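Q&A log
Question type: sequence-to-structure
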Amino acid sequence: MIQLKNVTKVYRTKTIETLALNRINLDVEAGEFLSIMGPSGCGKSTLLNIMGLLDRASEGEVFVNGQAAHQQRGKALARFRYAHLGFIFQSFHLINDLSVIDNVTLPLLYRRGGGGQARQRAEAVLEQVGLSNRKYHFPGQLSGGQKQRVAIARALIGKPSIILADEPTGNLDSLMGTEIMDLLIGLNRERGTTIVMVTHDEGMARKTDRLVRLFDGSQVN
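Response status: OK
Response body:
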C-alpha cells in the first residue's frame, strides 16, 4: 500500500541545515497496522506527512497503492490524496462553529461529486464510531474521546484505503485512549483498512502488527 525508497528530508534555512529523515526504506502492506515510535524530534511526524503527501521528500520515491505519488503535483496530488488517504491528528482539528455532522461531512465538499449523499454517509460513519446521538452537538460540548471519534469519522467518510494517525491517543487519558485504540484495531481487522500510527505509547504500539523505531531521522530496526 505504501512504499518508501531512500526517502530523505532536509530542512534548510540561510544559516542551518537539518536532516529530518535519512534514507528511509519502508514497505507497508495492505491491511497492516503499523506503528512508528521514537523520541521527540526524531522525524516521526515528518515521515507520516511524507507518507500522507502533505510534505515532499527532498530525495527518494514514495509509492501509494502502486502509484508514484512523488510525481504528482498540484490538483492531481490533492485528488490523489483525497481518494486514498484519511488523516487523524492528536489535536483533533475540528471546527468549533460546526456541528459534529458538519465537521464529518466537510471532506466530501472538496471532492468532485462527493456532496450528493454526504449527509447519509456522515450519519453512517458516526453510527460506526458510536456518536449518532451527538451529531447535532458542537465540539465544545464533547469530551476528548468523543472529539477523537468525530475525527475518526471524518477520516472514514471518504472511504480511504489508508488511515494515517499522528498520536491519536496523545491528548486522552488511559481509558479514552484504550477506547480509541480499540476502535482503530476494529477498523483494521473488520474492514481491512491499512493504518499507520505515530505514537509515544509503547503499550499502544505493541497492539499493532508491527513497530518501526526511528532515532535521529534513521530507522533503527
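Response note: DSSP finds seven helices and ten strands in the chain.
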